[in-house]
Specification:
The complex is a heterodimer of chains A (117) and B (714).
Chain A: E1 8-12, H1 16-28, E2 32-37, H2 40-49, E3 54-58, E4 60-61, E5 64-65, H3 67-76, E6 80-84, E7 98-100, H4 105-116
Parallel strand pairs in A: 1-2, 1-3, 3-6, 6-7
Antiparallel strand pairs in A: 4-5
Chain B: H1 15-24, E1 27-33, E2 38-41, H2 43-49, H3 53-58, H4 67-83, E3 87-94, E4 100-111, E5 117-126, H5 140-148, E6 154-159, E7 164-167, H6 169-175, H7 179-183, H8 187-190, H9 193-209, E8 213-220, E9 226-237, E10 243-252, H10 254-276, E11 279-285, E12 290-293, H11 295-300, E13 310-312, H12 313-319, H13 322-338, E14 342-349, E15 356-366, E16 375-382, H14 384-406, E17 410-414, E18 420-423, H15 425-431, H16 435-438, H17 449-465, E19 468-476, E20 482-493, E21 499-508, H18 510-544, H19 551-574, E22 580-581, H20 582-590, E23 599-602, E24 607-608, H21 610-629, E25 639-649, E26 652-662, H22 675-688, E27 691-697, E28 700-708
Parallel strand pairs in B: 23-25
Antiparallel strand pairs in B: 1-2, 1-5, 3-4, 4-5, 6-7, 6-10, 8-9, 9-10, 11-12, 11-16, 12-13, 14-15, 15-16, 17-18, 17-21, 19-20, 20-21, 22-24, 25-26, 26-28, 27-28
Helix pairs in contact in B: 1-10, 18-19, 19-20, 19-21, 20-21, 21-22
Chain lengths: 117, 714
Amino acid sequence: MNTWRGLRVLVVEDEPVVAMCLEDILDGLGCEPVGPVGRVAEGLALAERENLGAAILDINLAGERSTPIAEALRRRGVPFAFASGYGTAPEGFETWPLIEKPYREADIDAALKALLG
Amino acid sequence: MIEAEPGHEPLPVGEDEFRMIADSAPVAVWVTRLDRTRSFVNRAYVEFLGVPYDEALAFDWRRIIHPEDAARVLAQSVAGEASLETFDLEGRYRNARGEWRWLHSTSSPRRDAQGRHIGFIGVAHDVTEAKEAELALRDREAQLSAFIAQSTAGFAQVDLEGHFTLVNDRFCEIAGWSRDELMGMRMLEITHPDDRDRNRPLFERAVAVGTPYTHEKRYIRKDGSIVWVNNSVSVIRRPDGEPFGVLAVTLDVTRRREAEARLRKSEESLRLATESAGMASWELDLETLEGEWSPNRFDLLGMERRADSRGSFDDWIERVHPEDREMVRTAAQRCLRTGRPYTIEYRVCRADNREERWLQSHGSRIDYEGKRPSRFVGVSFDITDRKRAEDELRESEARFRTIFEQANDFLVTTTLDQVITSVNPAVVAALGYAEDEIVGAKIGDFMDPDQLAVAMAAFEHKLREGGTTRLSVTVRARDGRPLIWEVNSRLTADAEGNPTGLHAIGRDVTEAKRAEAHLRLLVDELNHRVKNTLAIVQGIAQQSFKGAVDPATARRAFEGRLAALSEAHNLLTREHWGAVSMKQIIGDAVAPHGDAARFTIGGPDLPILPKTAISLALAMHELSTNAVKHGALSQPEGHVAIRWTCVEREGRTRLALTWEERGGPKVTTPTRRGFGTRMIERGLAAELGGAVVIDFRPEGLVCTVDAPLPEGAE
C-alpha cells in the first residue's frame, strides 16, 4: 500500500466528514493529502501554489462548480480526477477520470493508477 | 309571312310556346349533338355567358368553371356523357358580370326514332339564389317564315262537282300532276284519303252557302309522294251571283309541316329532358287562370294526372302550405298584374299523402304583340332535398360552431401558406391577442424560428405522407410568455383529395411540462442527496471504527453519530431542505445527551443552510458525547452553556459561538485527538469558513467559533 508514498494529492471536498474519509484513504495509500478544502477560492489557491502530484476534485462545492480549479491544474499539468455522487464530468473535461462517491480505497487507487500509471 | 295572312289557321299551340317557356325560364337549356356541339341553347344560357347567340352555341363552358370545381365537374361531365344516362353536375360558373353562380344541371340523352343516341339535352338552374327571369319574345313570325318564305302560291279552279277547270304552273308543280292529267280529274281524287272526309263538307258548304274556308290537307302526287298544302278556298260567282266554280289558292307547306313535326319531336324530348330534371311547367290563360299543366306538375303536387292535362291557378294555390299561401298568391298576382316575373320558394302539401315538400317556382307573363291574349307561364322544381340538406348543413355547422367556440382546446385552421384562417376563443384567451390580430397572420408570427422549423417539418411530413402529426411546440403569447402546446394536426382536402389547408387541435402543456421538469429535478436532487448522505455515513463509519477501539464502543459511537445525522435530516425534511433554525439544530443535537435544564442555549435565531446544519449538528453531537463521557455532563451538577452572537468586525458581521462546560471534573488535554476533535476543529471550521478552537481548560472545556455569518443568515 505504499505505492504512492509521498505523492501529494490535493483534496477538494466540501463535506467535512467525507473529506476526512478521503484524507484517511489517501493516507492509507501512502499519499500526502493536501487540504482538504471545500471552497473554489481555497482550492484554486492551493492548485496554483502547492507542489502537487495529483488532485481529486468534488464537482460540486457548496453550490459552485470546481471547474476553475480543474482548469488551473490542467494549466500546470497536474493530473486529477473528478468525484461526484451523481452526475457527469463538467463540460470540457469529459475524458477525465470520474470517481463515484462514496469513496472506496480501490477506486482511488485505480484512479491514481489511471492518472499516473 | 304567308301563314300569318288573315284567315289562315294559326299553328297548333305547343312547340313554339314551349320554346318561349324554355326561353322565359331562368334555367339554362341546351341541346347537343353527338359531336358535343350545341344545336340549341336558350336565352338564360346566352345571358349567363353574356355573348351573342352564335358564340354561346360554340362557347367553351369549361372556361368559366370555378377553378376549385373545374376538375371535378369536367371529370363528372366526361363520365356522365360516356354513361349515356341522365346525369347531374353542380358547380360554380362565372356569369357575364363576373359573378360566381352555383348551377345545378341535368343532362339527358336524346335518341332518334330508332333509339340511337344523338346527343344530350341539358337544363341548368341557378341554385345560388332565386334569379328573376327576364322575358322577351322571340320573333315568332320570323322564325316561322324560315320554313315557308320561299313559297309562291299555286292557283286551281274547279267546277261545282270538283272537276279541275283551271290550274297554274305552280299548282301543277305543287300537286305533282301535269295540267293535262289534272284536267280530267276531280279535286278529291288527288286529295289524301284521310283528308277527304274533312274536306268534303267544307267544299259542299262553300258551294251551297258560299262560305270561304282555309284548311290544310295532303295531295297524293303522281309519283305517290305526299305534299301538304294550305288552301284558301272561295266560291267564284257569275255577275248574277250564281256560283259556277271554286278557287283555291294553294301553298306548299310540306316543309313547314315537317319542321313542325321536327319541332314537336324536339318539344317532346325537351319536355322529357326537363321533366327528368324535375322541372314541371304550366301555361295558363290570363283571363280564366286555367290552362295546360305538364304531367309531372300533377305528380309534383300529388294529384291525379288529368286526361286533358288542364289545371287551374286555384288547383295550385289549394296545394300550397297555408303558411306560405299568402306570400305565393301575392307574388303570382303581382306578376299577373304587372308582368314582373318572380321566383319563390314555398311548401306544398301533396294531395295524395299530405307530405310537405319544398318547391321553387319561376312564373312570368308572356305578352304577345297584336290581339293574342297574354299567358301566365312558368316552371317549378322540387327543392325539398336541397332544403333539407341546407337545414342539416346549418344544424351541423351550428353544432360544430358551438364545439369550436366552447372547446378548451385550441382550434386553429390555416391555409397551406400557414396563414391563419380561424381560431377559437381559447386561442384568443391563451395568446392575449385580439382575434383579428391572429386571423390573417402567419403561424410564424407566434413562434420562435426554431419552433417554426419544428412545425414546418411536421407540415412537410403531412404533405408527403398524409395523416396526423402530433408535436410539442412553444408559442409566444403577446406578453412574451412561452407556452408549450401539444398540437395534433392534419390537412384538409377537397373532394379530389387535394390538400386545401390545415386543421390543428392544441392543448397547453406548459404546466405539465414544468411539473415534469420539476419532478426530474427532484429525482436528480434526491439521488444527489442520497449519494451525499451515503458518503457521510461512510465517513462516519470509517471514523468510528478506525484504529484499535473496542468494537462495542465503536458501534455505540457510530449509532450515536447516525442518530445525530438522522435527527438533523428530520429537521431538514420538515423544513423542505430550506434554511433551518440554528437554535433548533443545536437544541435537537444536544437533547439526547441530557435534560434541558443542563443546557443553556441562547442567541439570535439565525437561519442556516442544510449543509451547514448537518456539520453543526454532528459537531454538537461530538461535543455532547465528549461532555457526557469526560466533561460537565458526566457529573450531576454539570452544565453546558451554548451561546452565540453576531459581532461587527472590520465592517463585517461575524458569528461568535461558544460551548462552555461548567461543573464537570477537572479537564486535562487529551493525548490523542479523535474523530470528534477533528470533526469540530477542522470539519466545522472548513464548513463555516472560519476558526474553531477547543480549549481544554481545567474548569471546563470551551469551544469557540469565529466565522463569517453562515450562508443563509445574511
